[in-house]
Amino acid sequence: MLERTTKHIRAFSAIILVISLLGCQGVLLTDAKPAQLAESTETVREQLKKIISQETGISQIRISDNALMNSSFLIIERTTRQTISNPDLNGRELLLPYRFQLLIKGEQCFLVINDKNKHWLLNGVKCLSIESAS
Hints:
Elements: H1 2-25, E1 33-37, H2 42-56, E2 73-76, E3 98-105, E4 108-113, E5 118-122, E6 127-129, H3 130-133
Antiparallel strand pairs: 1-3, 1-6, 2-3, 3-4, 4-5
């Protein structure tokens, strides 16, 4: 009897864990469309930098004033730390860059990292569907 109860508790715990992990992503972006920023302000760029820095681990992110204004994609080059033990003699990073995409669903803008299934809601950011902006 105790063994069966323990199995039920483990199964229930696993279900709760899966539901809570799925809840972290919040909104499903299945019908979201590529977008571009309606305007690029310092506040918008700071929000983008914070998200990108957290996701990539790169502390110094530089974003141009017109980033995501003419395209839904933002490419961030990977950087390697040069240390005495890792001098990076060839001067190049061979890994693919980080690819972020701006999407719109309803009135909400999302930043998505393309090689992972992660996205962030951009608070107070106005964006336009690429189709409607053309």
